[in-house]
Design a protein that fits this description.
Blueprint: H1 13-20, E1 26-32, E2 43-48, H2 51-58, E3 64-69, H3 72-85
Antiparallel strand pairs: 1-2, 1-3
Length: 108
Amino acid sequence: MATLDIEIPRTETEGYRLNLSQAQPIVYALWRSDPSDADGRPNIFHVTVCPYEADDYLDGGDVTVEGAPMPGPVVQWLADYVSRHHHDQPFEKRQRQPFAPMAEDDIG
C-alpha cells in the first residue's frame, strides 16, 4: 500500500528498545482516511518503530495506527543501531523546595 522510509532519531532509542523487547516487534503504520478518495484506500503518511511516537499520534484522534510484524532483517538492523547509540539516562530525583509559610497579610 505504501513505501515509506523509517526515520530513527538517536534520541528515541528507549522506545526502540521497548519495541525490540516484545515477543514480536512491530512496525507502526500511521494513516488517515480521506472520504474524498475514490478507491477508499487509507492514506499512509508515516511509519515508525517507536511505540511512544505511535502513541503520540493517537492523541489527536484523526490518525489511525496499525501495527505489522517487523521483518527479521529490520529487527537485526534496529537492534544493531540501538546497541551502538543507546545511552541509559540516569534517574535524577527532584529536590523538594523547603516549606516557606506565607505571611499573614499575603493573599494566597
